[in-house]
Amino acid sequence: MNIHSFLDTGLAFKNPEQIAARRDALLGEHLRYLAEHSPFYRKLGSALREVRTAADLPLLPLTDKSDLADPDNVFSCVDSHRMVDCCLTSGTTGRPVALPQTARDLERLAFNEELSFRGAGIAPGDRVLIAAALDRCFMAGLAYFLGLVRIGALTIRGGSGSLPVLGELVRNHRPSAIIGVPTLLLRLAERLQGEGVDPASLGVKRLIGIGEPLRNADLSLSPLGLRLGKLWGSDLFGTYASTEMATSFSDCCCGRGGHVPPELIVVEIVDDEGRPLPPGQPGEVVATPLQVTGMPLLRFRTGDIATLHDGPCPCGRNTPRLGPVLGRRSQMLKMRGVTLFPSAIFSVLEEVAGVRGYYLEVFDEFDLSDRVRVVVGGTAGALDPNDIAERIAARTRVKPEVLVMAPEEIQAKVHPGDRRKPVTFFDCRKTTRQGR
Ligand SMILES: [Zn+2]
Predict the structure, then answer these.
(1) CA 263 to chain CA mean position, Å
(2) Within this chain, do residues 154 and 168 fall inside the same structural domain, yes or no?
(3) Cβ contacts of residue 243 below 8 Å, gap of 6+?
(4) Who surrounds ion ligand 1 at CB < 5 A?
(5) Ligand 1 centroid distance, CA of 273 (Å)
(6) Taking 70 as the threshold, does the pLDDT of residue 291 lie above it?
(7) What is the average per-residue pLDDT within 77-83?
(8) Ligand 1 midpoint to CA 6 (Å)
């Protein structure tokens, strides 16, 4: 059975009502599949049959990471002999959770990445460096590889573990596009410059950023995005994905947020109490991935805060778009009545000349208020902590404590062991806020 695709009918480009109707039909199939095969969701009984459209989803409970981690809950829907890939979550916010995949699930992932990469302009004949891990049971690198194979582009499997390896591959195999974590692509460009090579001269036309946003809340490019584009002389495409969602959302050529593939997922945005929020308002992303067979989920709380945008995109598609992730719900900072995410502070630091790495620590100050310390890497005397604090205050309305340390110390702190992404947020608050 093939994955249902709206491409065949050009439906992604037609009117929003038609798109919603087809998506709701697939949602109905998903709910029937859960009722029949999912030991965990079957317990919802007749409630599953009451949902007719995506707007009815709030009738059903949310699923969160603790539900997935509980060994008493059985989410898997097929016999183990039908599983072909043992996929694990990255474990950024807890122990890795296994999400076994069937052959059809891998086909679905490949289709999803084909949609994403085609939307970013990748075509047969492109040479694409995958600067992301294909091993350690991660889903993402495998999905990129399968999607590129479907397109017929050349894959260059560089992985994310070694800058020297990536530098060699870029120089010798001249990719036309690179997929990777933005800060890794920044370090790769700086390494090439250090070797006397101008990255912009290498012919890399597209950078596809994963794991970290490249855009601000208003969808303009972030300072990191602008810097990367200039260094590599490339167009930038942001993506957002997670293993549990088994779906990625990618910028099209117009950079107006990641298109939500309506045949693969229903996205809701909810407030702190789990109530639905309308398009245009930031809230927690809740995902119901469609057409998954191995371990399908229902109303999964991602913990990520983002905004859904409706209305047509200048590219001609009428599918909704998801803005960049503004932060993790658990990383929300509350300082003297102002609520903000670490990314707002990091985007100021990206613009300060001489800053070489940074991280943020947060402590309890008093009830409902946090004390934030920003630790910045730089040469002693070259950076003025008070000036940096003022610049942060001018943008965010809160003035944190700023410390300057040697860049090597920052590097050691933010790149511990083999973590995929730099760790720039350290939560020292006593109260557990994982659930927030
Ligand atoms: Zn578009």
Answers:
(1) 19
(2) yes
(3) 87, 88, 89, 90, 99, 138, 139, 140
(4) 252, 254, 313, 315, 317
(5) 31
(6) yes
(7) 94
(8) 15
Domain presence at residue 84:
yes
Residue 290 sits in which domain range?
Answer: 1-325
Same-domain status, 310 and 351: no
Average pLDDT over residues 363-389: 88
Alpha helix ranges (H) inside 38-154: 47-50, 65-69, 103-119, 140-151
Ligand 1 center to residue 115 CA distance, Å?
12
The structural domain count of the chain equals 2
pTM above 0.85, yes or no: yes
In this predicted structure, which of 8-17, 168-177, 207-216, 294-303 has the lowest mean pLDDT?
Answer: 8-17
Report how far ligand 1's centroid is from the alpha carbon of 137 (Å): 31
The dihedral formed by the CA atoms of 137, 141, 144 and 148, expressed in degrees to the nearest 10: -100
CA 253 to centroid of ligand 1, rounded, Å = 6
Ligand 1 centre from 132 Cα, in Å?
A: 25
Domain co-membership, 208 together with 312:
yes
Measured in Å, residue 318 CA sits from the centre of ligand 1 at: 8
Q: CATH no. for residue 307? A: 3.40.50.12780
Residue after which a domain boundary falls, among 325, 360, 387: 325
Q: Are residues 307 and 333 in the same domain?
A: no
Query: What is the whole-number distance in angstroms between the Cα of residue 315 and the centre of ligand 1?
Result: 4
Instruction: Please state, in angstroms and rounded to a whole number, the distance separating the CA atoms of residues 172 and 202.
Output: 10
Question: Distance, CA 429 to ligand 1 centroid (Å)?
Answer: 40
Measured in Å, residue 312 CA sits from the centre of ligand 1 at 8
pLDDT 10s digits, 114-147: 999 999 999 999 999 999 999 989 999 999 999 9
Which residue's structure tokens are 């599918």?
Answer: 319
Q: Are residues 119 and 101 in the same domain?
A: yes
